[in-house]
Amino acid sequence: MDSKCLMLRLLLSFYIDSASTVPDLLSIFHEQEMTETVHETNGHGYLATFVGKNGRFVILRVHSHGLVTIDLQCYEEDNISQLDNLLNALETKLKALLNGNITRIKRLPALIRGAKVDRYWPTADGRLIEYDIDGVVYEEDSAYQNIKILHSQQFGNILVLNGDVNLAESDLAYTQAIMGSGKEDYAGKEVLILGGGDGGILAEVVKQKPKMITMVEISFIVIDGCKMHMRKTCGDILDNLKGDCYQILVEDCVPVLKKYVKEGRMFDYIINDLTAVPISTEPEEDSTWEFLRLILDLSIKVLHPSGKYFTQGNSVNLSEALTLYEEQLGKLSCPVDFSKEVVCVPSYLELWVFYTIWKK
After folding, report:
1. 42 within domain boundaries
2. CATH number (domain holding residue 48)
3. What total of structural domains would you count in the chain?
4. Domain of 177?
5. In this structure, are residues 6 and 58 in contact, taking their beta carbons and an 8 Å threshold?
6. Cβ count near 214 (within 10 Å)
């Protein structure tokens, strides 16, 4: 059963005396037949919880520095008009008690907890986004990750890997950016795609009639899910692992790259769609940085001297992480130059950085 949390926030222009404010609010809760429990705050304002017979639960917090918060929790089938009336009554009473000394009042939309379909997903820079997701169309676990495809009314189906929004059917801008934003001619070229299990990059590059595309994706489960539920992105390209000008290798790309280095293979374009730049150098992300450095170094070794390497970076707001990545580019076995482009990817709801890298 879903529950909802409605929130009211008031920021005041002065320090507040809870002893003179709270008593007048209590009558409103008592009218709702809610039982009060006051909690010790060691002199830091006032904190009380109120429980109603119908399962409603309210947290009232009066901070002495001038902030009042009211959190109201209820079940989905609760009477919304009654809840609105309760918050309206509290807001009206507070306005009267505080004599207009309120800097800001903010009532937040209800947060839905325990829903069958999770609509809340974080951006790369730590903001919580509520999507208009109304269904899970696919979910499987591979040996490497949890794979979900969710349906959004606005963005179409969205591929989510380990809780990270990867790509939606609306996100052609992502695919175009990681291919060079329409500035490259893939006709007759040798192309290597690392990752890309949603098939979007492969489908777009094939249209330009390259000599051969080799795509290396570690998870057949991602491919299988996307060919069924992301067809606005991949079309029918994932229906077969081989075509006239492409092959899909369902393998770990690291040994494949090492094999290509040993064989002296060269590619005109390498598109790395494996993972975003880590947001920090915390211990749990050390392995990701090491993986990125390894992929970069191996890729540059199989990149034609006049070729280009494309990859995503991360959110434009994560400037420190992007700087760390750019520092890695100066530590490769072969010297490189790079440029970057900032693109709005619809379902990300944030600006995203893409890199173009080439040998000096």
Report:
1. yes
2. 3.30.160.110
3. 2
4. 170-359
5. no
6. 18
The CA distance from 157 to 150, in Å, is: 5
Q: What share of the chain is helix, strand, coil (3-state, %, to 5)?
A: 30, 40, 30
| In-domain check, residue 124 | no
Q: What is the tens place of the pLDDT at every residue in 123-132?
A: 988 898 999 9
Dihedrals φ, ψ of 68, to 5°?
A: -120, 125
Residue ending a domain, among 74, 92, 108, is 108
pTM reported for the whole predicted model:
0.86
Q: What is the dihedral of CA 271, 161, 289, 259, to 10 degrees?
A: -50
Q: From the CB of residue 152, how many other CB atoms can be counted at a distance below 10 Å?
A: 20
Q: DSSP string of 145-187?
A: -EEEEEEETTTEEEEEETTEEEEETT-HHHHHHHTTTT----T
Tell me the two tokens of residue 146: 């949890």
Residue 120 lies in a domain: no
Residues designated catalytic: 273
Separation of alpha carbons 171 and 348, rounded Å:
9
Instruction: In whole angstroms, give the CA distance from residue 37 to residue 189.
Output: 72
CATH of residue 249: 3.40.50.150
Looking at residue 285, its amino acid is E
What are the tens digits of pLDDT across the range 220-262?
999 999 999 999 999 999 999 999 999 999 999 999 999 999 9
Residue 99, pLDDT > 90, answer no
Do 210 and 84 have their domain in common?
no
Buried b (16+ CB within 10 A) or exposed e, 62-82: bbeebbbbbbbbbeeebeeee
